Amino acid sequence: MGHPLRILVVEDSPDDVDLMILALRRGGLDPVWERVETAEELLAALADGPWDAVLSDYTLPKFGATAALEIVRGADPDLPFLVVSGSAGDEIAVSLLRVGANDYVLKHNLTRLAPAVVREVREATNRRARRAAERAAAHLAAIVSSSDDAIHSQTIDGVLMSWNPAAERLYGWTAAEAIGRHVSFLAPPENFDELAEIMRRLRAGERVAPVETVRMHRDGGRIDVSLTVSLVRDQDGRLVGVSKTARDIRERKRAEAALRRTTDLLTAVTEGTTDAVYVKDRDGKYLLFNETAAQFVGRTVKEVLGKDDTALWGPADARRVMDQASSVMESGRAETTEEVLTAAGVTRTYLATQTPYRDDGGDVIGIIGVARDITERRRLAAERDELLARLQLHVARMPLAYVLFDADLRVTDWNPAAEHILGYTKEEAFGMGPFDLVPPSFRPEAAELLTRIRAGDMGAHSVNENRTKDGRIITCEWLNTPLTSEGGQFVGLLCLAQDVTARREGEAALRLRDRAIQAVTQGILITDPCQRDNPIIYASPGFVRLTGYEAEEVIGRNCRFLQGKDTDPAAVARVWEALQAGNPCTVELRNYRKDGSPFWNELSISPVRDATGRLTHFVGVQADVTARRSLEEQFRQAQKMDAFGQLASGVAHDFNNLLTIINGYSDLLLQNLPAGDPSRELVAEIHKAGDRSAGLTRQLLAFSRQQVLAPRVLDLSAVVADTQKMLGRLIGEDLQLATTLGPALWAVRADAGQLEQVLMNLAVNARDAMPRGGRLTIETRNVELDETYVRTHSDARVGPHVLLSVSDSGSGMTPEVRARIFEPFFTTKGVGKGTGLGLATVYGIVKQSGGHLAVDSTIGVGTTFKVYLPRVEQPVGGSKIHTAFRVPPRGEETVLLVEDEEGVRTLTRHVLTRCGYRVLEAGDGDEAMRVAAGHDGPIHLLVTDVVMPGAGGRAVAERVGQRHPEVRVLFVSGYTDDAVMRNGVLSEGVNFLQKAFSPAALAFKVREVLDAPGSVIP
Predict the structure, then answer these.
(1) Rounded to 5 degrees, what are φ and ψ at 789?
(2) Which of 895, 953, 962 has its CA nearest to residue 926?
């Protein structure tokens, strides 16, 4: 590292210091060290520095890591600070990392100490070096920082002396990399002569005109630049250097090249088409006229350009063409018209499409037109009309209905037989379409038939229902002949029909029954009990879709081939008994498709008997009810989780009061006991147990959705980014952490601290699933949950969501374990290695935040947890949690304390009195109102439990506020209550402190409420 490593150790145990120094030496370091164990010694040592790193125990008799961190950060923000502790757990370590500690190492695993020190010292050195470089470059950047052009200066010999930010952006070289080098590295080899000539002229004192040339980017790419060179002289006029300004002209060059390509393409298109292409300006003068257009009018292109339509057509034709162009320019919309025009003695029919021609600002400055000569097509159309007219005469007395449709399938002819069969007169039928003659049920089939006819299918005949004028439904047989032009284009349809209603009624009834069976989504089987083993004689298409078996594969077999290892024998027995007795039966049983996949089959069996009552067949109707069964199972699981939640919240509520007392008094004892008191260690253990118990109650409240949230509108990617470094420390160096954060992420509304808790719990769970190392991947992206997804996830909602996905490459879970992972106290870890509340906490936080949680897991592959939070249409606010260390504040105000739990009330009074406040106390709401009524002076703060016998916290706040309008309110509770907040979410302006709280937390919160601008009574 360039000098002996200087280590400052904050530790009260010399033996522990010796172990740390030994671990550093075993890691290849030879440190110089000094031990301190008080704040005064630490300040003095820092003043005598410098130091390369600070190693601190978490807890000392009169000192601790948190206080030491404040002192070190005040002296040197970059000095590495590592916590070396034998008792700090994950939660404490995370809190220290969050407020600025660089790393933590457990004393029983000091092998990590040397690599961690080396890493953090290296990173601190890099940070200091970067800051020094930034200060050195700041003066130069300020000179030309406002310029968008690359500006650099050089000596007369070509050595670079300055380099602005625009030069960095243009060339890719930083100022530090460029300054001091000869300018030749910017020029490509073929431009060395040009560069040498410029340098020669500059040395001669000549002026160099701006030039367009090529320079090299750092990545090897070429840059087109416009280069301006200026001589730099000193006060005596002597030439001392050169200033060069380079402007990036690549975009202009690309635009010029694109314009050339566009021009070439336009020329190729206009001259290669058989259509007339032209462009007119606003005054109707031709700006472009291709060769095909010139041939149409019998002129050359040169004769037309610059002229208007009066030079091409007769007066009437010219006026009509110009009016059409004016209409397009005025409306701003494209128009297609058919015109008959005469030019050079030849009359032609043109189909012309004209569109507005706009400038870069969107203003119409002319028209662009494409015209096609359709004279021949019109002639053929006239011949077709003549043919159809002759045909009409021949079929006027035909006994078959004769119907003629045009290209748009509108009736153009209708003989007397058609009037007789369908009831419409010829005049009434004109303009009708095929769909007007059929009932709605046949229209899809009619559409398919017409598609075939339009394609020229000469065999597209049909027998179908028709609807007569008086509403009767009849059946007609239709012989349909598509009419096409010589080019094969569909131009009409000729139909001959006869009424076959009587003949087809019986056939229609049979077809109807067959179509009904074919259409139903359920599987239908017909079996023959008169044959051995009751074989299948019919399988519907629905059965094929349901099971994957083709009908040919099952005909002649008994239905038992659908059964498998998990089919309930009792359900099979019920079916067999019904078949034996010839009775109907409905059961749900697990069956298997051809591919082996299982499904829940709702099977309804009905006997079929002949006119004499003899059993002839069985009909079985099968329906896949797997989705319904899954939803029912999800509903039962949700009920179980709600029951767990109600039990957990009740236990946590009562336990929080006890923990407030235990933790509060043990905290006060620790503050009062001297460092050498033998009772101090015992009280500390009580306090640690209380802290762990408080953590368990917080997890219980999180699972039961009874914790208090302070939600904000967040960018979920920002929360992940803020937590990423802490997660890396949490999972350890043997696991790879990867993040994929989606761009333009939608906003969500949630509690940032609770989302961090979700990430930490999932990360710890993933870490434990990968004991031999692996990969943890965190992803965020926008998703839309549709109705298909919601149908199989009962607690999900349709709409836009933001997805937080946490995936590991660990051991995975069995379906049985996956079904129970969110239950509180359920764990697959060994005794003492988990509380079983981590994933239950995740479940509660996600549900209380209005989200949805899903899990995918495969044994040997890994597990993915997917958290879906609904999108909110609000701007994103802050997402970070800020923590600072302060001395508990004091005050002299009057506080009315209302708490029905005597132990909590006594502790609270004791803490407030020690902080200097005057305390009035009451054991319930009614007593509180009597105390407030009897107090003549001001009551500055009401501290009240939310849920109490009789009047609750809100009622007390309202009544006390009526007599003492100056009062501020602080609500205290072990769980949420709708009287103060909704679903655990604080209302804006409501002050709340959740049990179990520490004396310091109470002191800070009281001071915060008293010093705030106002207080809200919900």
Answers:
(1) -65, -45
(2) 953
Contact in structure between 546 and 559 (CB atoms under 8 Å) = no
Lowest mean pLDDT among 104-113, 134-143, 284-293: 134-143
Q: What is the mean pLDDT of the chain?
A: 82
| Cα→Cα distances 589→566, 623, 643, 696, Å | 9, 11, 30, 43
Tokens 């029951």, located at residue: 643
pLDDT at 1 over 70: no
- Residue 540: phi, psi to the nearest 5? -80, 165
Q: What is the C-alpha to C-alpha distance for residues 658 and 666, in angstroms, rounded to an integer?
A: 12
| DSSP β-bridge partners for residue 872 | 747
Write the DSSP assignment of 892-910 as a string of letters: --EEEEE-SSHHHHHHHHH
Cα dihedral angle (979, 985, 990, 992), rounded to 10 degrees? Answer: 90
Contact 908, 899 (CB under 8 A): yes
Rounded to whole angstroms, the Cα distance separating 351 from 214 reads: 51
Sheet holding 81-85, edge to edge: 32-36, 6-10, 53-56, 81-85, 103-106
Q: What's the pTM value of the predicted model, to 2 decimals? A: 0.33
Q: Is residue 842 a contact partner of residue 678, using CB atoms and an 8 Å limit?
A: no
Beta strands in 116-206 (DSSP E): 150-154, 160-163
Sort residue 1007 into left (φ over 0), alpha (ψ -120 to 50) or beta: alpha
Distance CA 925, CA 930 (A): 9
What the block records as the tokens of 869 is 């939070």
d(CA 801, CA 872): 9
Task: State the average pLDDT over residues 230-259.
Answer: 79
User: If DSSP states are collapsed to H, E and C, what string results for 272-285?
Assistant: HCCCEEEEEECCCC
Cβ partners under 8 Å of residue 441, min gap 6: 465
Q: What average pLDDT score do residues 308-323 get? A: 90
Provide the token pair at 905: 């009330």
pLDDT score at 642: 57
Cα distance between residue 251 and residue 162, in whole Å: 26
Q: Which residues pair with 894 in a beta bridge?
A: 918
Report pLDDT for 105: 87
Is the C-alpha dihedral spanning 530, 536, 539, 542 positive or negative? Answer: positive
DSSP state of 434: G
Structure tokens belonging to residue 537: 């004689």
Q: List C-alpha distances in Å: 744 to 472, 749, 750, 800, 876.
A: 61, 16, 18, 14, 12
Q: What is the 3-state secondary structure (H, E, C) of 725-765?
A: HHHHHHHCCCEEEEEEECCCCCEEEECHHHHHHHHHHHHHH
User: Rounded to a whole number, what is the largest CA-CA distance in the chain?
Assistant: 131
Segment 419-426 long-range contacts (CB within 8 Å, at least 24 positions apart):
421/468, 421/474, 421/476, 421/497, 421/498, 421/499, 422/466, 422/468, 422/469, 423/468, 423/469, 423/470, 424/469
- Please count the CA atoms within 13 angstroms of the CA of 448 that sit on its side-chain side: 4
Residue 113 token pair: 């100490």
pLDDT tier for residue 703 given thresholds of 50, 70 and 90: very low
Q: In what order do the strands lie in the sheet with 401-406?
A: 411-414, 401-406, 490-499, 473-484, 462-467
CA distances from residue 680 to 10, 597, 685, 691, 914 in whole angstroms, order as listed: 20, 64, 9, 16, 21
3-state secondary structure of 409: coil
Closest listed residue to residue 338, CA positions, set 374, 367, 313: 374
